[in-house]
């Protein structure tokens, strides 16, 4: 291995790593999230081009979800999701907090009333006619 290859493996751009670890679908979206303050490196806001190393602490906010992770593997290529999970370590408390939030959101969605879409059926039309006072 030459010296240039070794340097690439030691450090990786933050936006590229977030994309490779499958936190964001594109590098552009990852860069926008970092610039918008949704990603903190070692407890501080950072820039998309900041180089990270193994052992770096990241806090990622994506919608209502939050990850607190430690970078384990520096990856520059996007891998399958099963492999991407091995790029970082996440404490059980962070996983549990996110799972509780997802479950609460799922429960909230199931409790919300369903809104009918599309054209009214025969029963709906009869109710509309009754309500508006129009009868055949």
UniProtKB/TrEMBL annotation:
RNA-binding S4 domain location: 12-79
Residue spans of biased composition, Basic residues class: 116-136
Region spans: Disordered: 108-136
Keyword tRNA-binding applies: no
Tagged with keyword RNA-binding: yes
GO-annotated biological processes: cellular response to heat
GO molecular function: DNA binding; ribosomal large subunit binding; single-stranded RNA binding
Domain of life: Bacteria
Keywords from the named record: DNA-binding, RNA-binding
Recorded family membership: Belongs to the HSP15 family.
Protein name: Heat shock protein 15
